[in-house]
C-alpha cells in the first residue's frame, strides 16, 4: 500500500515537473527569439547608419545602388493591401459559411463540410502558390492583360488560404451562443433570419472578430504563396492588376543574396522585426477582443 502510494506520488511529481519544464522552455525560446530578432533588427540604425524615417517612409529599395537605399514603405503598403483585400473577400464568405453550418445546413452536409475546411487549412502554402501560378495567373493574364502576376492574384490566393481559418473560428463562436437566445427571439415573433442576424451574430461578435484578426495575421505573415503570384516588383501598385511586393516576399527573395553583418542583411532583419511588431499588434487586438465574451 505504501509502495503504491509512493509510485503514484512519483508519477504525479514527474508529470508536473515535465509540464512545468515544457512551459518554461517555450517561454524561454520565445523570449530568446524576440531578443535575437530585436538585436539584429536595430543594427540597421546602430551599425548601418539608417534612420527610422528612411526605413519606414522611403519607397526606394536599391541595395546595390550608390549609395544603397533601404526604404521599406512599398513592402509595408503591399503587405497591407494584399492582406486587407484578402480579408474583404474571405470574411463575409466565412461568416456566411459559419451561419450556414450552424443554422441552415443538414447535419450530413456539415459532417462533410468540416473535413473539407480542415483539409484546406492543412494544404501547404506552396500548393496554393503553385495552383495560383498554374491556373489563376494565366486567367488574369487573359482577362486583364499584362503578365497576370498582380496584387489581385495575391489577394485571391490569400483569401482562399485564410477562409477556412475564419470560418472554423466563427462557426465555433456561433455554436457557443446558448440556444435560449434563439428560442427567446422566436418567442418574440422574429423570423429565423432576424434571430440570426440581430441576436446570434451580435452575441458571437467577439469570437467572430477573433477569427477575422487571426485570418488577417496569417495573411500578413504568409510568404511563399504570395511571392509566387504577386510579381515581386518594387513599386506601388497602380491597380489590382499591377504587380508589387510584400515584406515577406522580399525577405524570402533576398535572404540568400546577403552576407551576415552587411547593411543589406541588416535591412532584411529590420523588415523581419517590422513583421514581428505587426504580429504583436494583432495579438494585442485579439487579447482585447477575445476576453469580452467571458466577462
UniProtKB/TrEMBL annotation:
<dbReference type="InterPro" id="IPR011864">
    <property type="entry name" value="Phosphate_PstC"/>
</dbReference>
<protein>
    <recommendedName>
        <fullName>Phosphate transport system permease protein</fullName>
    </recommendedName>
</protein>
<dbReference type="InterPro" id="IPR000515">
    <property type="entry name" value="MetI-like"/>
</dbReference>
<keyword id="KW-1003">Cell membrane</keyword>
<feature type="transmembrane region" description="Helical">
    <location>
        <begin position="116"/>
        <end position="137"/>
    </location>
</feature>
<feature type="transmembrane region" description="Helical">
    <location>
        <begin position="149"/>
        <end position="174"/>
    </location>
</feature>
<feature type="domain" description="ABC transmembrane type-1">
    <location>
        <begin position="76"/>
        <end position="286"/>
    </location>
</feature>
<dbReference type="Pfam" id="PF00528">
    <property type="entry name" value="BPD_transp_1"/>
</dbReference>
<comment type="similarity">
    <text>Belongs to the binding-protein-dependent transport system permease family. CysTW subfamily.</text>
</comment>
<feature type="transmembrane region" description="Helical">
    <location>
        <begin position="71"/>
        <end position="104"/>
    </location>
</feature>
<keyword id="KW-0812">Transmembrane</keyword>
<keyword id="KW-0813">Transport</keyword>
<keyword id="KW-0472">Membrane</keyword>
<comment type="function">
    <text>Part of the binding-protein-dependent transport system for phosphate; probably responsible for the translocation of the substrate across the membrane.</text>
</comment>
<dbReference type="GO" id="GO:0005886">
    <property type="term" value="C:plasma membrane"/>
</dbReference>
<keyword id="KW-1133">Transmembrane helix</keyword>
<dbReference type="InterPro" id="IPR035906">
    <property type="entry name" value="MetI-like_sf"/>
</dbReference>
<keyword id="KW-0592">Phosphate transport</keyword>
<feature type="transmembrane region" description="Helical">
    <location>
        <begin position="21"/>
        <end position="42"/>
    </location>
</feature>
<feature type="transmembrane region" description="Helical">
    <location>
        <begin position="267"/>
        <end position="289"/>
    </location>
</feature>
<dbReference type="GO" id="GO:0005315">
    <property type="term" value="F:phosphate transmembrane transporter activity"/>
</dbReference>
<feature type="transmembrane region" description="Helical">
    <location>
        <begin position="195"/>
        <end position="217"/>
    </location>
</feature>
<dbReference type="InterPro" id="IPR051124">
    <property type="entry name" value="Phosphate_Transport_Permease"/>
</dbReference>
<dbReference type="GO" id="GO:0006817">
    <property type="term" value="P:phosphate ion transport"/>
</dbReference>
